[in-house]
Design brief:
CATH architecture of chain B: 3-Layer(aba) Sandwich
Distance between the termini of chain B: 32 Å
Largest interface: A-B, 41 and 46 residues
Number of strands of chain A: 4
Number of helices of chain A: 13
CATH superfamily of chain B: P-loop containing nucleotide triphosphate hydrolases
Largest sheet of chain A: 2 strands, antiparallel
Structural class of chain B: alpha/beta
Largest sheet of chain B: 6 strands, mixed
Strand order of the largest sheet of chain A: 1-2
Strand order of the largest sheet of chain B: 6-9-10-3-11-12
Structural class of chain A: mainly alpha
CATH class of chain B: Alpha Beta
Oligomer: heterodimer
Distance between the termini of chain A: 28 Å
Number of domains of chain B: 1
Radius of gyration of chain A: 22 Å
Radius of gyration of chain B: 19 Å
Chain lengths: 357, 258
């Protein structure tokens, strides 16, 4: 039984009619940006963005730069994996940055070491019972924090039917308040060695890539993934088809919260400290990566692969601007312009998609 | 009695003081195709909404497949075997044909709660079989629904009912927004359902279509049934007379006095 038997009015199945994956466009954009930096670098400074220029190193590419590009986006990238699912389902999550802050404070309190250079830990939050716990304890507590915060988001959105924007805005403000209250604004520091090892070196990249692969498979091959797309595409149709929309939404936001808490664990381990201001504006960077990666704010469209490419574009731009010795101020201005540009492109795509029908 | 798939007795719906549906007695036999006609606001859609559980009736009984039923919502009705093709399409635009056919009842390869693994191959094969059975022609079932014409979408919605061997199919103006060729395609599917012996309630304003497709016509006027006509004993003008109120069948005479 071949596809070619089915055609409207004798129209044959045409493989060329199959839609091109939108990730291809994002990948092309990434390539264009990389080439632009390469050309600008060679013209202005006579230096290469991508390729190794040092005679004493035997490598084709400038690996330190490539490592930094991905390392600097992996922690926010982990958050973006959750935000991707939320946006595909037609929602938005503004709370992830604050969940990072609150989770980092709580996690670090359970990851402290009792003695610092032979003296009692000056930043101790709890008594000796919470000192030198096995590393699994802070990790589990962290995941639980994220799951609880995300579930509250989901329950508010699914059962009170307030817009996701408002529900997660509330969580954003409250979770930030919690992280300031937790230790009266003091940083929490001096983790155990095993906790500090979690975020060392290139480990954040490993977590980011691993989780990206996992959720790529989940979104593509599981019922959870299919229902996430269905809700974002047509919530009424999803409901009439028998999908438990409320339960699914709670799950989506809980998973997004857990991914934010994983980012918090990795970040606090990497920095060896947790502060109340951690993760400020991360939610917007995560949304930006997602949108640049071709995930539609209207829901129903997008992929994890797109978001990973979006994160890479983000990293390349930051590195590229540093490479061209441009001020951080310009970086932010251009970042803003790119986010707006990506949404404009998304609108065009939608318009041309509906024009075909 | 066993060949009756759906029966309503004294089915009534009041919206506050508005009597949208009043004492509807209706029967549908297995394999029978019945059209419901009437002016806008005559109670056709209200009637369907009570049967499918979208709304809760004020009073009256519904017997479906030999059992009295009280559907709390359209999902209950669907699980009992009653499929409705809505005027507004209940399809997810960004998903492809087989995703839409199996939305909410996916075939599973490996069961693991919400993270059960989908069996794409089985769903695709069942989709092709369903499309063949209904004669629905779609250029490429891997394309998302948003790239399809209105007629093709409507066909997908109808093919869904055929896939799951529903006991009763209800279509609310399935061709209202379609072109000539697409309408013909949908009508062909309805004929296929007829040959397969699957009962159908068709709400339509299209007299030619109704005369072409169904066995029996039930006319609603001002919330009441005013005529129950076998197609062989009536014609278009006759039906119009019932719709407009120029005629009322003797057994429904009390309705005419309202």
């Amino acid at each position: 039984m071949s596809d070619s038997q089915f055609g409207l009015g004798g129209l044959k199945y045409d493989p060329k009619m199959k839609a091109k994956p939108p990730e291809l466009n994002v990948f092309l954009a990434l390539m264009i940006i990389v080439v632009t930096f390469e050309v600008l670098g060679r013209v202005i400074y006579g230096d290469s963005f991508l390729f190794n220029q040092r005679a004493n190193v035997d490598a084709i590419f400038n690996w330190p730069r490539l490592n930094i590009i991905i390392l600097q986006v992996s922690i926010i990238g982990i958050i973006a994996l959750g935000v991707t699912q939320v946006i595909i389902s037609g929602g938005i999550d503004l709370s992830s940055g604050s969940i990072v802050g609150a989770t980092a404070m709580i996690v670090m309190s359970f990851a402290q070491t009792e003695l610092v250079n032979g003296n009692p830990n000056p930043k101790a939050i709890f008594g000796p019972w919470a000192m030198d716990l096995p590393v699994i304890v802070p990790i589990m507590i962290g995941l639980l924090c994220g799951a609880i915060a995300g579930s509250i988001n989901g329950i508010l959105i699914a059962y009170t039917r307030i817009p996701p924007f408002i529900a997660t805005l509330g969580m954003m403000v409250s979770a930030r308040g919690l992280s300031k209250w937790w230790s009266n604004g003091n940083p929490v520091s001096f983790p155990t060695e095993s906790f500090a090892a979690l975020g060392k070196g290139m480990w954040p990249v490993v977590y980011f890539v691993g989780l990206a692969i996992l959720f790529h498979l989940v979104l593509r091959y599981t019922v959870y993934g299919k229902h996430t797309y269905a809700i974002g595409s047509n919530e009424d149709a999803a409901r009439m088809s028998g999908i438990n929309v409320a339960k699914q939404k709670v799950m989506i936001y809980a998973i997004a919260g857990m991914l934010a808490s994983i980012a918090a664990i990795v970040l606090s381990s990497k920095n060896l400290t947790a502060q109340a201001g951690m993760g400020v504006m991360y939610e917007l960077d995560a949304i930006a990566m997602t949108v640049i990666g071709g995930v539609s704010l209207a829901g129903g469209r997008g992929s994890i692969l797109g978001t990973v490419l979006g994160a890479l574009i983000f990293g390349v731009i930051i590195s590229g601007f540093t490479f061209l010795k441009l001020d951080a101020y310009y970086q932010e201005m251009v970042k803003g312009a790119i986010i707006v540009g990506a949404v404009v492109l998304d609108q065009w795509r939608q318009k041309s998609a509906s024009a075909r029908t | 009695m066993t060949d009756i798939i759906l029966e309503t007795r004294d089915l009534t719906k009041h919206y506050g003081g508005v009597h949208a549906l009043e004492g509807a007695n209706f029967t549908l036999r297995k394999g029978e195709h019945v059209a419901i006609m009437g002016d806008n606001g005559a109670g056709k859609s209200t009637f369907v909404r009570q049967i499918t559980g979208v709304e809760q009736r004020t009073r009256g009984d519904i017997v479906f497949d030999g059992k009295p039923v009280n559907f709390a919502g359209p999902l209950d009705a669907r699980e009992a075997g009653m499929e409705t093709v809505y005027q507004t399409l209940a399809l997810a635009d960004h998903l492809d044909v087989s995703d839409n056919l199996f939305l909410g009842r996916e075939k599973i390869k490996f069961k693991f709660g919400p993270f059960s693994i989908l069996d794409y191959k089985a769903m695709r094969e069942a989709t092709l079989a369903a499309l063949q059975k209904t004669g629905v022609k779609i250029p490429n079932i891997h394309n998302s629904i948003e790239r399809m014409s209105g007629g093709q979408r409507q066909c997908v919605a109808i093919a869904r009912t055929a896939t799951f061997h529903s006991k009763l199919t209800i279509m609310d103006e399935p061709t209202a927004a379609l072109g000539v060729q697409e309408t013909a395609q949908v009508e062909n599917i309805i004929r296929t359902l007829k040959e397969a012996g699957e009962p159908l309630i068709l709400i339509s304003h299209n007299m030619r279509q109704v005369m072409d497709l169904v066995d029996r016509i039930v006319v609603f006027r001002r919330g009441r049934i005013v005529a129950n006509l076998n197609k062989s004993e009536t014609d278009g003008q006759d039906v119009v007379a019932y719709i407009t109120g120029a005629k009322t069948q003797p057994e429904y005479a009390e309705a005419a006095n309202l």
